[in-house]
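writing this on my phone so excuse typos. first protein, seq and then structure
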Amino acid sequence: MRAARLRRTADIAAVRAEGRSLRKGAFNARVRRTGGTEIRIAVTASRQLGSAVARNRARRRVREAFRRAVASGGAGLSMDVLITVRPEARATEFRTIEAEALSTLRQVLP
């Protein structure tokens, strides 16, 4: 399965309002089940992470971890995921972030 991007402001607001909150070491995730056929992901990072370069790098790492998690274990799911990157993500190894992403998807399985 392929992870799509969650882009519309109204969809992101719906995830914030109705989504289930999950907290991991490198990120916070809000997950909302949908009636669609794909997993849509939006990644945000606040200025607490540092410069624009640091924020973008952290977002890319977390987005890639979720892309891999969806490809390996997200078959049959339909949900919107809003991920807020935490400052801990800068120092966390990629393998750990990837394991946390897979753990997050497994927690919301039926």
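second protein below, same order as before
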Amino acid sequence: ASTSPRRRQLMRHLGLPFAAVASNYREVHHKHLSPAELVRFLAEGKARAAAGRYRDAIIIGADTVIVHGGKIYGKPKNRLDAKRMLKSLSGKTHRVVTGVVLIDTKSNKILKSVVITKVTLFELNSRGVKNYLDDAHYLDKAAAYAAQEQGAGLIKKIQGDFTNVVGLPLERLKIMLKKFKVRI
């Protein structure tokens, strides 16, 4: 149920046939949920919305947020918002939190997981942020950067699963798929 180009690219690495479909799930961010609960809730909503259209398939739903200082960072509204986000994360460590939910529509079994990866950005000065924003596609990226694009130059250190930062935690996904007897 994931339509993100980054997630489609990662799925190709598994060598499994798949179709990326829009779930048409309307995301509602419940403020009372922790970041881990929120991404698991949203991933499950996406997976369930797509699962209703398939009789014999394994549906993967995923959702990712960036968390720092108790605040959830989504996609920036504009350049000024992107600049604010990058400056607030400059030189600091934040968490990339991804919820992954698999539904086997044949058996109605469901697996849920959350992966957290820590990312530390370099200290960014105003000129560096301006240069990055001049060259990067940042409006469709949580916290205004992507690890596999120009944003890679902003990253000082990654602790955990790199593929989680790119968009889909492949090692966890492999473990989950094996529980559904999918050969990888």
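Residues 35-51 form the longest helix (17 residues). thats all i got for now
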